[in-house]
Design goal:
With 241 residues, the protein is of the alpha/beta class. The chain has one domain: P-loop containing nucleotide triphosphate hydrolases (Rossmann fold, 3-Layer(aba) Sandwich). Helices cover 42% and strands 16% of the residues. The chain contains 8 helices and 8 strands, in the order βαβαααβαβαβββαβα. The strands form 2 sheets. The chain has a 5-stranded parallel sheet, with helices on both faces. A hairpin with a 5-residue loop joins strand 5 and strand 6. The longest helix is centred in the C-terminal third of the chain and has 24 residues.
């Protein structure tokens, strides 16, 4: 899958699709760095860099960070030594403007996007996933009321602080977030479809089965039919090549 002097794989998907988890698997399989745009923004804010200070002004008002600032941040990250062999990008690009800017930046260094993998999940599954999420206000760990057995008093199993549901994880808000994402992302998918690098993986099942589907799409794993769905007695398994 990795071809050329510098190549990038993209994980594209709505909130709750599991982009971060699957991007880590892809990065490990390819031996390249996983880069999440959300993590980069938090890093710049914590360090009070010029990018972070500018982004904070938009984020604190509830506005989207401008494309040019996000592009600058990602391109700077790609110039670090640990990204020399390429990266797996998670959460970027979100607009056609960002996608085009990425194409130009990669072409300048003899690289390209080799795969844009869309994680496809029905809206009702996304609502169930995100509305069940709980976040610790102390250590910021994330949990799920269905997938994990949480204390009845809503305390964090890790640090004992309080677990809360984020305002944007309320079902009605999740539905709106997904609708906005789909509206914004459709042109991005078309951008990569025209270039012949768009692929799709059903991400509505378990993490392990989704992982098999993702890696199969990238030519890195056996067919997901060789994977079993996890049950109470069987955690699920896959057969590697």
């Amino acid at each position: 899958m990795v071809a050329g002097r510098f190549s990038v794989a993209l994980l594209i998907g709505p909130p709750g699709a599991g982009k971060g988890t699957q991007a880590r698997y892809v990065g490990e399989a390819l031996g390249i760095r996983h880069v999440a745009s959300g993590d980069l923004l938090r890093e710049h804010r914590q360090r009070d860099t010029p990018i972070g200070l500018t982004a904070r002004a938009y984020m604190d008002q509830g506005d989207l960070v401008p494309d040019e600032l996000v592009v600058q941040m990602v391109i700077e990250r790609l110039a670090r030594p640990d990204a020399a062999r390429g990266v797996v990008l998670d959460g970027f690009p979100r607009t056609v403007c960002q996608a085009r800017a990425l194409d130009v930046a990669l072409a300048e260094r003899g690289g390209r996007v080799t795969a844009a993998l869309f994680l496809d999940v029905p809206t009702d599954v996304l609502v169930e996933r995100l509305s069940g999420r709980r976040v610790c206000i102390g250590c910021h760990s994330t949990f799920h009321v269905v997938l994990q057995q949480l204390p009845f008093d809503s305390t964090c199993p890790h640090c004992g602080d309080r677990l809360v549901q984020r305002a944007d994880d309320v079902p009605s808000v999740v539905t709106r977030r997904v609708a906005v994402y789909q509206q914004q992302t459709a042109p991005v998918l078309d951008h990569y479809r025209v270039r012949g690098v768009l692929r799709r993986a059903d991400a509505s099942s378990s993490v392990e089965l989704t992982r098999a589907r993702v890696l199969e799409q990238l030519g890195l794993r056996e067919s997901p039919e060789l994977c079993s769905e996890p049950t109470e007695r069987n955690p699920g398994h896959c057969v590697s090549r």
